[in-house]
């Protein structure tokens, strides 16, 4: 299908919480992301086929598409968990292929769907402090600067009251806040979030995405819920079978024709009466 190409993102006012680097006079690095001609294959199966993508500094961009379209694979290539078979990933104009693990972690931080089991027995403060590893030597104890940034990140995400609790005891929404705080103490320019609203109820979905938008970082999110993507993302990239088939502002991308072709569903796309963003209403089968 013909994609919606070259549509500039419509900026939205992001009020509220400042990123950790935005207080005490320090400013987080303005890192933009550019993906050019990215290819990735698992054996003979091509999962990404010539993907181009960009995220400007301070922009929130959503990756949407049906299951198996390549969204999570693309995200993993961006933050270095997978090595592409071709193409380039650039952060702040510099190719990530030439960066060390530590240097890449200073530029992009990951908020996964679920934390690894190793975090469950740790306190919230200890989990967040794990994000300081790119900024200290392996054998170093926490410095005063590390402690200060951890406390500030916890305040930023509204989780300072949870600092002494075990991570495994928290609710899903509380865990997501802690994982965002852990990402923030890396002082990244880009947050890569894989289904940050997974397993959360409606209230926590809205809180987490509102929090992410208010941080001031560049954000690349994998999302399944198209209405959340329309409400919280400046621009969207639609993936299907490993290719970008449409990109642009939500109102230009989320069309009834695209939903029928890519998702194989019938839908009506209207305008939300309060927010003014596209509102997708699905037509039941049968």
Task: Describe the structure using short key phrases.
single chain, 286 residues, alpha/beta, 6-stranded mixed sheet, 4-stranded antiparallel sheet, 9 helices, globular
In a few lines, what is going on in this structure?
The chain has helices at residues 71-79, 101-107, 124-129, 144-156, 172-184, 202-214, 226-232, 250-253, 256-263, and strands at 33-42, 45-55, 60-64, 86-91, 94-95, 108-111, 190-194, 218-222, 235-240, 243-248, 267-271, 278-282. The chain contains 9 helices and 12 strands.
Topology:
Elements: E1 33-42, E2 45-55, E3 60-64, H1 71-79, E4 86-91, E5 94-95, H2 101-107, E6 108-111, H3 124-129, H4 144-156, H5 172-184, E7 190-194, H6 202-214, E8 218-222, H7 226-232, E9 235-240, E10 243-248, H8 250-253, H9 256-263, E11 267-271, E12 278-282
Parallel strand pairs: 3-8, 3-9, 6-7, 7-8
Antiparallel strand pairs: 1-2, 1-4, 4-5, 9-10, 11-12
Helix pairs in contact: 4-5, 5-6
């Amino acid at each position: 299908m013909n994609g919606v190409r070259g549509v500039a993102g419509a900026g939205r006012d992001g009020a509220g919480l400042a990123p950790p680097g935005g207080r005490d006079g320090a400013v987080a690095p303005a890192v933009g992301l550019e993906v050019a001609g990215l290819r990735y294959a698992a054996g003979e199966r091509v999962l990404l086929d010539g993907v181009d993508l960009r995220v400007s500094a301070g922009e929130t961009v959503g990756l949407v598409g049906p299951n198996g379209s390549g969204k999570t694979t693309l995200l993993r290539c961006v933050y270095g968990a997978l090595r592409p078979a071709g193409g380039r990933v650039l952060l702040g104009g510099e190719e990530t292929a030439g960066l060390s693990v530590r240097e890449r972690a200073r530029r992009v931080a990951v908020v996964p769907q679920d934390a690894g089991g190793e975090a469950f027995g740790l306190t919230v403060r200890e989990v967040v402090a794990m994000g300081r590893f790119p900024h200290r030597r392996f054998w170093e104890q926490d410095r005063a600067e590390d402690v200060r940034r951890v406390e500030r990140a916890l305040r930023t995400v509204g989780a300072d009251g949870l600092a002494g609790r075990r991570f495994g005891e928290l609710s899903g929404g509380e865990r997501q806040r802690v994982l965002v705080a852990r990402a923030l103490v890396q002082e990244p320019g880009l947050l890569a979030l894989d289904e940050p609203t997974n397993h959360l109820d409606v209230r926590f979905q809205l809180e987490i995405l509102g929090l992410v938008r208010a941080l001031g970082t560049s954000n690349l999110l994998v999302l399944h819920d198209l209405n959340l993507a329309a409400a919280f993302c400046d621009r969207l990239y639609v993936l299907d079978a490993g290719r970008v088939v449409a990109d642009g502002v939500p109102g230009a991308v989320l069309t009834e024709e695209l939903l029928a072709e890519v998702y194989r569903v019938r839908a009506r796309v209207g305008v939300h009466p309060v927010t003014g963003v596209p509102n997708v209403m699905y037509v039941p089968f049968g």
